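Progress report, Aim 2. The chain analyzed during this reporting quarter is listed below.
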Amino acid sequence: MNAIPAHLDHLVLATPDLAATVAEFARRTGVTPAPGGAHLGHGTRNHLVGLGGRAYLEIVGPDPEQPEPAGARPFEVDRLPGPRVLTWAISPPDLDEAIAAARARGYDPGPAHPMSRRTPDGTVLRWRLTGGDAHPSGLVPFLIDWGDSRHPTASGLPVTPLLEVSATAPGPREVAGPLAALGTGLALAEGPVSLTFTVDTPKGPVTFG
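Predicted structure tokens for the chain:
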């Protein structure tokens, strides 16, 4: 199994306190994440770090500058007890084709729906993605298509090269099937549900989970 999943777009490190988690990432790695922007209407915002190539890390948490959203915040970040690597996303060459192919192989990742965020320079990025709840463990990725928007890694992010992504699950085979249906993979072992990644940094390799 490859250490880095095929078609990886980004990893999601969710937190109830964005400022504190960004500061802790900088302390542990020596690299300060860049402000990404606000998810208007959803009550969250993010900071980003490149992982090499077109992959990146999204650190996402509540946005104190936005009013309370009508529904739950993405990833229910305000209900988390602390920072956690919750899930990940892949960007296949053709989103709709990938959804259809996965369904034909026995796994339904759900329909694609639109999202957007406003970057610090005022640019609005728009993309489509499938829901993150098709597989509740978070170990099976959601799918994303950036369309005509600038990919986050094209904006000159600070970079901590990704060395490895791995996971544990009580039933690894139950995760491996959907992964194969999506045309990607993940190093899996038996254990409690957990997703971890390791990056190379000026302070040496650092693992987050």
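The first strand starts at residue 8 and ends at 14. The two ends are 20 Å apart (CA to CA). These observations will guide the mutagenesis work planned for the next reporting period.
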